[in-house]
Amino acid sequence: MQTVTKTYQDLPAAHRQPKHDGHCRLIHGHNWRFDITFICAVLDENGFVIDVGKLDKVKEFMVSHFDHTLLLNETDPFLKKLKNDLNAIIDGEEIDGQTPFAEIVTVPNCGMEGLAKFVYEKVGAIVNLKARELRVVEVTCWEDSKNRATYRL
Q1: What is the pairing mode between strands 69-73 and 28-40?
Q2: Mean pLDDT in the chain?
Q3: Would you state the pLDDT for residue 95?
């Protein structure tokens, strides 16, 4: 089996962990980076695990979810208030002609551990993973350059 890793970086997004007992309960931002590793049993006709130049749908997903967004847990107690009182776009929902306060992406867990798993699952659904036993094998989520979490099966 061979692997290849595609990196998406310099994705500025904010998040918060509402149950945290310290400063992480407040909205704060990071420049996120994601290393997505693919594996396959048989290389394609070009000798590639995957043609990383043809991952347009993956790039579109990454930008729409992590470029100038506010990442919140699906259970964040302020989610409804943000939508109703502050005119926030939530999960791509359009707003009638008003300037939005924020574009919010909801995820099960907006910490780096949860984001690594979220990207793993979503990219696996975007890319045709049946050909050549191709699959996502792991995703590493970097919170700036200091901290990282990896999700793999």
Answers
A1: unpaired
A2: 92
A3: 67
pLDDT-derived band at 74 (thresholds 50, 70, 90) equals very high
Residue 98 predicted with pLDDT over 80:
no
**How far apart, in Å, are the Cα atoms of 54 and each of 4, 19, 29, 119, 146?**
14, 40, 29, 18, 30
CB 106 within 8 A of CB 140: no
Task: Answer yes or no: pTM beyond 0.85.
Answer: yes
- Distance between CA 116 and CA 5 in Å, rounded? 14
Q: List the helix and strand counts (H, then E) for the chain.
A: 3, 7
Confidence of residue 110 (pLDDT cuts 50, 70, 90): very high
Whether residue 139 contacts residue 34, with contact meaning beta carbons closer than 8 Å, is answered with yes
CA-CA distances (angstroms) from residue 151 to 15, 135, 147? 19, 14, 14
How far is residue 83's CA from residue 29's CA, in Å, rounded to a whole number? 20
The ranges assigned to domains in the chain are 2-152
What is the enclosing helix (H) or strand (E) of 37? Answer: strand 28-40
What is 2-152's CATH topology?
Tetrahydropterin Synthase; Chain A (3.30.479)
